[in-house]
């Protein structure tokens, strides 16, 4: 999840918690306000009722057949007034209560004010009630309005927070991250300063610049060391090889030493191949090859098949060039692509079975031009596939031919040209190596 979304989410959660707490407090507040408002109205009604009683007398309210009680309800049972004869009460005392009353066969919840007064030496209890369902409806309406307002404010603030987060994180999203994404090698890194008023981002950019500078220096030193060592090794190795050839050709060489000399020559030759491979990788990584050539892939594969068909014939392996003849690639170094494809086809022959096949095909689609080198050889174990492009890693350690740099060279050449690589393999059934050229490299004529 992106940082700006996380910030907005955290802000939203905190606001939701605050608003929920606010709603709880608000509900209690509304309950208190509504109850106080109702009690105040009941006191006014009490005063008005007593004023009328004082004017027209208590007997006017009491029924002739039952002069100890009086009750009056409005049509909707929203309010009622009741007078009851009582005894032993303290005049002038009033109390509030919320009770359920049955009126004309129906039960209602009322907020009731009870007041005791004395007229003509007789005590009376006055009850004035208001249906609290009306109050609850009023409170519910207010709560709904408040909830809708809070939700509206919450949505607005979340959108505002997202906008603010996008604005504040713009230097990170539009400058720092794109700069890192577009960097293919440390040498191509953009060391420009970041124009921002946020000191944290400016510091982050400065630290990244310093880190990339250190990485570039270390990598350049490492590449130079490999190149220098490989170059310097070539001279003494060549001298040793020359002396061993002279020694092997000497008639004075005892017969029993011939196998040892031959083995030494083989190891010297192998060492030369390793040095040349390391030099090649070093030159590729140091960007010492131009990428300006255009050529037909079919013709390149044809040349490789011509060069290598003798090795395939030894194991009776058929080589099939099924690449589309009209497809060309451009802005490429032909020599490097030749080495890359040669290594792939050579490996397909090396790890193939007697009477097998090596098929080189092409597929052009929206993803680019895919060149596949497929064989029905021994295949690769699934746990080895992630490591096959590592240097000095052999697919089959028991095979002495080669020195474990072929696929590493393939990977270096592919990365140098910004090509994608892939491999699928099933042990004892064969392998398929893929090289994908982006569409901007491809031309059809």
Low-confidence stretches: none
Q: Find the count of extended strands (DSSP E, 2+ residues).
A: 13
| Main beta sheet strand tally, sense and closure | 5 strands, antiparallel
Work out the oligomeric state of the chains in this entry.
Answer: single chain
User: For the CA atoms, what is the radius of gyration?
Assistant: 47 Å
Query: Any idea what the shape is?
Result: rod-shaped
Helix proportion of residues, in percent? Answer: 40-55%
**Which strand order does the major sheet show?**
1-2-5-4-3
Give the tally of structural domains. Answer: 3
Q: Could you state the order of secondary-structure elements as H and E? A: HEEEEEHHHHEHEEHEEHEEE
Output the structural class: alpha+beta
Beta-strand content: 15-25%
Summarize the structure.
With 445 residues, the chain is of the alpha+beta class.
What features would you describe in this structure?
The protein has 445 residues and is of the alpha+beta class. The chain folds into three domains: 3-158, no CATH class; 199-284, Helix Hairpins, CATH 1.10.287; 290-444, Histidine kinase-like ATPase, C-terminal domain (Heat Shock Protein 90, 2-Layer Sandwich). The chain is 51% helix and 22% strand. It has eight helices and 13 strands. It has helices at 3-56, 132-168, 170-181, 199-249, 258-285, 297-314, 334-350, 406-416; strands at 69-73, 79-86, 94-103, 106-119, 122-131, 293-296, 318-322, 327-332, 357-365, 368-375, 420-426, 430-437, 442-444. The chain has a five-stranded antiparallel β-sheet. Strands 7-9-10-12-11 form a five-stranded mixed β-sheet, with helices on one face. It has a three-stranded antiparallel β-sheet with strand order 6-8-13. Strand 3 and strand 4 form a beta hairpin. Helix 1 packs antiparallel against helix 2 and helix 5 (258-285) packs parallel to helix 8. The model has no long low-confidence stretch (mean pLDDT 80).
